[in-house]
Amino acid sequence: MRRPKSQAGVYSLSKAKVQSTVMGLIAFIVMTFLIIAMLTTAENHSRFASSALNDWTAQMQSDWFVHLLGAENRYYLDAMHDPSPPSLTTAAFEIATNMNLEDPRTFLGREIPGFSGFDDTLVIAGQGTDFTNMSIESGPPAEEHLDELPETDEEASDAVEDDPPEIDDEEPIIHLLHSHSRESFLPEIEGGDPNHPETNIVQVGQYFADQLREHGLPVEVSEHDIQAKLNERDWDYSQSYDMSREILVEDMEENDELAFFFDLHRDSVAREHTTATINDDVYARTFFVIGEDHPDYEQNLAMAEDLHNRLEEQWPGLSRGVITRGGAGVNGVYNQDLSPNAMLIEFGGVDNTFEEVYRSADAMAEVLQEYIHEEMEEEE
């Protein structure tokens, strides 16, 4: 009688094992399909990749990584003011929530509309610059000005500065462009919309180019009306950098001597933050903006930091500083992936005048020509 019971027990055990195996196989198949679905339907910036890992670790305080290196090499810890390891609780909280207890912006950025505009990283803070007065990218022109086209008669041409001085036949090495070509200055125009199809940042680019030519540097200025080109394609204002990229790539293909690229803009913050008096002269302050959403942005950042430091040496307070900008809601590249010598420069704000901006352009041309000539000498 024991033998049948033993067979029944073996049969029962085998049946349970088979059921467990089948359920495990089904669970494995379901999980596989779920993972495949997540990987194939997620947006590019959400997929697991080296860039995603970089974004994830960027939320953690850098002290953690220094301490990890210090576990193997004590010299890393010697450079720290506080060699004690960070709190494990704090680290776990940052990983789980992407919130930094020492940065209140991480608590509010996802809850308050528009607050993400303060997510820029302030690499170098100029005099008086902090998170409350960071550079603000200008909005699109008012509805009634979107389709407005520049005049072409003689009266309109008078608004532009004198023709640039003649230079030799040497190919330009500097390219100036204006992705927001209609950004203007309220004291120079009528009305409350700081955008204008004729009187705008392009005139600053023309003046800046003249000063660089005076220092023997061949320059070309892109004077395209980006807004008009956006209208032609029925593109949104947020695609301004896509439009200027097409122009820039075409110009680079036509002239392989181009080596330095500057996208000139006008800031949107108030006059009190964009104006400085230096040696009894009033200047429109500058701000360097570097896009961090491309792998080689640190090369662009190094150049911006160098130019900021040079300005500070000769005109203390002229530069508002250097910031990096990236992530959701912004362009984050600004065509700077095309060259390590590309950057975006804000010249003044909505309440500055051309006279104040031109003084800043004089100073910027002085430090830039020093930088470029030094770079050219090193290459020789």
From TrEMBL:
Domain of life of the source: Bacteria
Comp. bias regions, Acidic residues: 149-164
InterPro entries in UniProt: Spore_II_P
Keywords from the UniProt entry: Membrane, Transmembrane, Transmembrane helix
Region (Disordered) location: 137-164
Alphabetical list of Pfam families matching this protein: SpoIIP
Annotated NCBIfam families: spore_II_P (TIGR02867)
This protein's name: Stage II sporulation protein P
Organism: Natribacillus halophilus
Lineage: Bacteria, Bacillati, Bacillota, Bacilli, Bacillales
